[in-house]
TrEMBL record:
Domain of life: Eukaryota
InterPro entries: NAD(P)-bd_dom, NAD(P)-bd_dom_sf
Pfam families xref list: NAD_binding_10
Designated name of the protein: NAD(P)-binding domain-containing protein
Domain NAD(P)-binding: from-to ranges: 7-139
Length: 262
C-alpha cells in the first residue's frame, strides 16, 4: 500500500506515520515544510534511509507543492490529511493564525487528487473535529458550551474542510444545512469551483473528541460512531484507529463521519 500523508510532522499524523511504516510493505510520501524535522528520530529515520518514506518539501496550502507528492507516478492508495495548527489564545477565545488553513489545504489536496491519472482515485481521509456545524448538539453539554465560547473560529475552518470533502465525494452529498455551510471568508466561491465535485468514491471524515497527548487505550475503550457523545480522545488512539480501521481494505467507515472518544 502506498499512502500520501499531509501534516505528518507531529501529533496524529506523526503517530499514524509510525503505525504505517511498522508494516514493511507500506510506503509513504510525506509533504513537510521542514524535511529536517525527523533528524535524530530513531523510529522514522531508518524508513527514510531505506526508501520506505519519501519526503517532499513544501507547504500543504500550495496546490503546486502538494502536486509534488504525486509527481513520481506511483499508484496512490490513500491520502490522509491531518493538517492543522495550534490556536492562539485571545480575549475572545482560541483563534487560528491562518483562519482557513484546513480549508485551503483541503482544496489544494483535492485539486491534485482529481488530476491523478489512475483509474480509481485513492481513498481520502481527513481529520476534522467532533461537533462541527449541525453535529454540535451531539456533544456533551459542557463541551457544547466550551466549544462555542473558545473554539468557534477553528470549527468554522473545519466546516470548510468537511464541506469540500463532501462536495468531492460521490456518496456524501454537499451539506445544505446553513450550520454546515462555511462562510465566504473561509471558503470562497472561487476555491469551491476549483475543486471538482462528486469524483471520490471513498472518503472518511474523522471527528475526534477533545484531543489529548495521553497513551493509547485502544478498543473497546475507544468508542466510534456517527453520533456518540464523548469527551476526550488521545491523538495516538486517533492514529491507531485510522491505521487499523480506515485503510484500504477496511470498509466499516467508508463515506461516513465517525466520532472518536472515550
Amino acid at each position: 500500500m502506498h499512502a500520501v500523508l499531509l501534516g505528518a510532522s507531529r501529533n496524529i499524523g506523526y503517530h499514524l506515520l509510525r503505525d504505517l511504516i511498522s508494516t514493511p510493505s507500506n510506503t509513504v510520501t510525506l509533504l513537510l515544510r521542514s524535511p529536517k524535522c525527523f533528524d535524530g528520530d530513531t523510529d522514522v529515520t531508518p524508513a527514510i534511509e531505506s526508501g520506505q518514506i519519501t519526503i517532499v518539501e513544501g507547504d500543504g496550502m500550495s496546490v503546486d507543492d502538494v502536486a509534488k507528492c504525486f509527481a513520481d507516478g506511483k499508484q496512490v492508495d490513500v491520502v490522509v490529511s491531518t493538517i492543522g495548527s495550534f490556536p492562539v489564545v485571545t480575549l475572545t477565545g482560541f483563534k487560528l493564525p491562518i483562519p482557513n488553513l484546513c480549508t485551503v489545504a483541503a482544496a489544494a489536496m483535492l485539486i491534485n487528487v482529481a488530476k491523478l491519472p489512475q483509474a480509481t482515485p485513492p481513498r481520502v481521509i481527513v481529520v476534522s473535529s467532533m461537533g462541527i456545524g449541525s453535529q454540535h448538539h451531539i456533544m456533551p453539554f459542557a463541551l457544547r458550551i466550551m466549544y462555542s465560547l473558545l473554539l468557534a473560529g477553528p470549527h468554522r475552518d473545519k466546516e470548510g474542510l468537511e464541506y469540500l470533502v463532501q462536495h468531492a465525494s460521490r456518496a456524501m452529498a454537499s451539506p445544505t444545512d446553513p450550520r454546515d455551510v462555511p462562510g465566504k471568508d473561509i471558503l470562497t466561491p472561487e476555491q469551491l469551483t476549483a475543486v471538482p465535485g462528486s469524483f471520490l468514491p471513498e472518503v472518511i471524515l474523522i471527528r475526534p473528541a477533545l484531543l489529548t497527548d495521553g497513551e493509547a487505550k485502544g478498543r473497546p475503550s475507544l468508542r466510534a460512531g456517527a453520533d456518540i457523545a464523548t469527551y476526550s480522545c488521545s491523538r495516538k488512539d486517533v492514529a491507531g484507529f485510522i491505521a487499523t480501521e480506515c485503510m484500504p481494505g477496511q470498509q466499516a467507515w467508508v463515506n461516513q463521519g465517525v466520532v472518536l472518544g472515550y
